Amino acid sequence: MNGTISKIEALEILDSRGNPTIRVFVTLDNGVRTSASVPSGASTGENEAIELRDGDPKHYGGKGVLKAVSNVNKIIAPKLLGMDPSQQARIDRLMIELDGTPNKARLGANAILGVSMAVAKAAARDAGMTLYNYLGGVGATRLPVPMMNILNGGKHADNSVDFQEFMVMPVGAPSFSEALRYGAETFHVLKKLLAKKNYSTAVGDEGGFAPNLRSNDEACEVIVEAIKAAGFQPGRDIAIALDPAASSFFEKDSYQLTKSKSGSKNSAEMISLYQDWVKRFPIVSIEDGLAENDWKGFARMMQAMGDRTQIVGDDLFVTNTKFVARGIEEGSANSVLIKLNQIGTISETVDTIAMCRKAGWGYVISHRSGETEDTFMADFTVAMGGGQIKTGSACRSERIAKYNRLLEIEMELGGSAVFSSPFKATS
Ligand code: PGA
Ligand code: ZN
Questions:
Q1: Which residue has a Cα nearest atom 1 of ligand 1?
Q2: Which atom of ligand 1 is nearest to the CA of 366?
Q3: What sign does the CA torsion over 11, 345, 122, 176 have?
Q4: Which of 368, 372, 391 to probe ligand 1 with, by most ligand atoms within 8 A of CB?
Q5: Does residue 206 carry a catalytic annotation?
Q6: How far out from the chain centre does Cα 299 lie?
Q7: Which run of H or E residues covers position 25?
Q8: Which of 110, 222, 385, 421 is deepest in the core (most CB within 10 A)?
Q9: Is 18 helix (H, G, I), strand (E, B) or coil?
Q10: 102 CB contacts (<8 Å, ≥6 apart)?
Q11: Catalytic one among 63, 104, 121, 339?
């Protein structure tokens, strides 16, 4: 006999930045009990589903989530009691209808996603299955290549670097565990290199270093230096992925490179900069190279470099089929960054991924800059089989928790684990 949902309760907890977020507990009538915690972004896209915050200045400076907690306990829970947790699509749709707004503004995407994830975990546990098998079936055997954000700037760090994320991607590693080792070793060598150059080795929100470099270019230069010094070949063993998060420095019709004091650039000049960088550095992927409303720019960037470079839309698509459909129509990108809390349910996230697959696009499952110890996304990545995950640097436990979970999954899968780079190795 499958269990049915007998209790749902939410709790206000803290994320990795010390801001409130929501954890949801789901209990089944046969005693199965699971919980899931919701992450939170800083450089959010303007079309993301609404993260409900209380706005009470006396409670966590307005950032409390007690309303979302109450929405779970008082509005969502009574409707789901008695339901079979394996009816994920039905439960998600019921919550969407209960919310009744196009962007989950009434109940909060944080409230809804917490329930959506906890319900999936309960169903998996009840079925005696791992979460990745439950969500992805028996074919869920592909481990991802990690995009490891080892150098931070933009809104994630108080430094002189405009671009938010400089990531290493161990595309030439033979397995996930080796990829993680390649990335972690490079991270430690980078720390020594930065210290030798008298730069700070304090870390930003996602665990990457946040030095006051002389230019944005120097970020790529020092990463290439670290890859080599760690004994790897840039391009062949380890490539670079960027997330400039350009919406965060787009103001008054131009890209303001204020933090590095590099003046302003228009869309075409930004594309030229990336073309130049792709020639100089082993860059295989660029996410949000342009701002979320620069659809024309994205299409031009795709034409200019989409045949060789993964062009990922994050703020542009906000994990929403409505925007991904437009992107496919207009040729705006060739890959989508997938963040569960941008859209707010597992079912809708899976729909977005299905749309990517159909279009022959890539997809990268991603954390948020504000995270928790929840490892749902690691299982979700294996379940979806896209071969790429973005979940931070080689330090900070909320990031490492995801990597450690992937190591466990690799061990569980043993000989059936698949690891294949989505990119051809370059040298
Ligand atoms: P965020 O950053 O979680 O602060 O939005 C991550 C990203 O831009 O990819
Ligand atoms: Zn991004």
A1: 41
A2: 9
A3: negative
A4: 368
A5: yes
A6: 23
A7: strand 20-28
A8: 110
A9: coil
A10: none
A11: 339
For the record, the structure tokens of 142 come out as 């592909």
Which ligand 1 atom is at minimum distance from the Cα of 337?
9
pTM of the model: 0.97
What type of residue is 293?
N
What's the CA gap between 201 and 263, in Å, rounded?
Answer: 26
Spatial distance between the Cα atoms of 262 and 251, rounded to a whole number of angstroms: 15
Nearest-CA neighbor of 320 among 345, 299, 298, 342?
342
- Ligand 1 midpoint to CA 265 (Å): 22
Under a CB-based contact definition with an 8 Å cutoff, are residues 108 and 68 in contact? yes
SS3 state at 199: coil
- Only one residue has tokens 């779970």, namely 72
φ, ψ of residue 25 to 5 degrees: the values are -105, 135
In tens, the pLDDT along 370-425 reads 999 999 999 999 999 999 999 999 999 999 999 999 999 999 999 999 999 898 64
The CA distance from 402 to 241, in Å, is 19
Regarding the beta carbon of 149 and ligand 1, being less than 6 Å apart is answered no
Residue 244 near ligand 1, beta carbon < 6 Å = no
d(CA 300, CA 254): 16
Q: Is 342 in the pocket of ligand 1 (CB under 6 A)?
A: no
Q: Which of 134, 20, 35 is nearest to 409 (CA)?
A: 134
* Tens digit of each residue's pLDDT (9 = 90 or more) over 326-339: 999 999 999 999 99
Q: Cβ(3) to ligand 1 under 6 A?
A: no
